[in-house]
């Protein structure tokens, strides 16, 4: 018997990790480090910028999409197993 994945827990964990990564990347960009990655992230995410409000917006956006992706991965894994 295969184990089932809890879709919500997977989604929440990915959302938290993504939001923390966005926070660290925003702080690094604010300090002038990893500017290439920060510029790429600003192009990919509508709400992300180096300002404090932009970092918070990027964290929310990253958490949202990561939760959706994690939930879908867990859902389809459970359906296919």
Keywords:
3 helices; 81 residues; mainly alpha; elongated
Structure description:
The model has no long low-confidence stretch (mean pLDDT 94). This protein has one domain (7-80). The chain is 78% helix and 0% strand. The protein has 3 helices and no strands. It has 81 residues and is mainly α.
Write down the secondary-structure element order.
HHH
* Uncertain runs: none
How far apart lie the N and C ends? 9 Å
The major beta sheet can be summarized as:
none
* Radius of gyration of CA atoms, rounded to a whole number: 15 Å
Tally of DSSP β-strands: 0
How would the global form be characterised?
A: elongated
Helix/strand-derived category reads mainly alpha
- State the helical fraction: over 70%
Please state the oligomeric state of the protein chains shown: single chain
Number of domains: 1
Mean pLDDT: 94
β content, as a range? under 5%
Number of helices: 3
List the SSEs and their pairings.
Elements: H1 7-30, H2 35-44, H3 52-80
Helix pairs in contact: 1-3
In short:
By secondary structure, this protein is mainly α.
